[in-house]
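Entry 14. Structure prediction run on the chain below.
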Amino acid sequence: MGKFALLIGVSEYAEGLPPLPAATKDVVAMQRILADPNLGGFDEVQVLPPPTSQQMAETIEEWLSQRQSEDLILLFFSGHGLKDDRRELYFAASNTRKHLVQSTAFEARKLNNFLRSSRPRQQIVILDCCYSGAFGAKDDGDMNLKDQLTAEGRVVLTSTSAVACAFEDKESDLSVYTRYLVEGIEKGTADLNGDGFVTIDELHKFTSAKVRETSPAMSPDIITLEGQGYDIWLARTPQDQPELRYRKDVERKARTGRFTPAAQRHLKALRRGYELSDEVAEAIEAEVLKPFRDHQRKLKDYAETLAESFEDDPSLSCGHVIDLKEYQQYLGLRDQDVHPIEEKLVGRALFLTPESIEKTVIEKTVIVEQATKQTKPQYPTFRFKTVRVNEQGEIVETIPREAECFTEDLGNGITLEMLRIPGGTFLMGAAEGEEGASDDEYPQHQVAVPEFWMGKYAVTQAQWRAVAGLAQVERELNADPAQFKGAKRPVERVLWEEAIEFCKRLSQRSKWLYTLPSEAQWEYACRAKTTTPFYYGPTITTALANYDGNYSFGNAPTGEYRQATTEVGHFKPNHFGLYDMHGNVWEWCLDGWHGSYKGAPSDGSTWESSDGTNVLRGGSWSGDPEYCRAADRGRSRAVNRGVNIGFRLVSFAPRT
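Output returned:
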């Protein structure tokens, strides 16, 4: 009998999938503990360099063909988990493209077939990935993991369920789930019965408890058939040392959730008994108790916020409840965590119903719209026509519209037209089940956006050249950076910081304040009161936008691929009078990148991030139509000078 492991981690991907830096680090950490003769004791631990889907399939099949019936095998995967329109599960490979999942990712059913036809009777599969798209995906519950991944004699450990998401751990550089897999084996804390071995069941129980403390939104699972596989011995525990024994004692106290004075005195007595220095013991306590203490701090924050809300509005109107539940989601607390607090402070658990949410949305919309009706300067009216299409992309209605506008004179006959975008409330993000939707477009959430003004077009090369000639504020600007030349074409190859410099120069010259849009402002303006994937309707064609016409969306036909930008104003505008919000060039937003909308602001403001990348919106001439959807989100490092990246301005009331 031999013990063999195959470890696969994919951190970098092709177009459409964000990187997962922790994935390859997860593999290194797992290799260390499994290959250690005093821990995992595996005879062979093979690490597969980030593979293509074909390489992944060939390596797994060949690796399994070399194993015997008495062998124990372990297959570990860390990376993106994806699904197709049939809700089938796939593992993303280095060549996987978001819109070509079936042909560029490795299908879970194929892995199941490989394992089912292989000889080893003891099979362990550990998956550290999301099953409906990585970091914050939605799923409708139709994916049956048990059917897709289990077979007789096999046990599967998963980092989270089919309807949840998996996260990276900022402190350890590993994913949250793998961090505790490694800790449970390496430090022996997963040996729950103290017999010197870590079984699969013990590892699952330990890891699940730790993950739920750290990331309550995750729900690790163990899947077997007919109860087989729970008692497989995966690893030995380290030799019994005072530090390990004390760690187990602290873990045991942490699991009770109670740190009474007696418990604290007991721990101090154990320190002395194990002859541990205060420094070593306190370091162990700090590490073990951090998730518990973080959780307690979040509960305290929620309780204080609830008390303040109750004092402000003893009736706790629906608006207050919605805000409380959004804050609860931001803290990562479950209903069962906060209901006891709610019952203690206000006498009842707080719930939201679809009816109450709809009522509040209507109330907020009325308030915002009333605010916009206050006396304001009169501006000229811009009249235009937009269109609505059916599912085949055929125009079925032409709609006359109008919008207020003002014109900024940039000199030498160059002008900048800005349209008033009325304030309102909308649902930001993709609707559940929307074609092409990605995990970063969820959860869909309501946002109230105050009035602002937005450029009728993306900034053109003529406008860029005019402002580049103004006095420098912080950095130099190249007056002619674009690859596709044309005064009325959008400027491209513009860095994020250069777009900011453009805004500062223009603001310094004008009585208006100019900036890039927040991501919420951009999507609100793009949708223009519509809820379909595109402001034209359920689909799009190359007669309506500039994108790669070799690809289609929904039931629409393929079309022209222009392979360059087009002049602004070439296509029909949306209901607010804005042109080219779908396609032509990606547009920079102010916001930094976040992998989901968990904790996103609900007031339309900018959401900063330390990720080092900034948000792009709208798709481009070089991309597929699904990237042109109103909900689609792109990102790029601020130093990226792409031939498909431009920007659009927003402005605010004149300064006095």
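The mean pLDDT is 84.
Filed with the rest of this week's runs.
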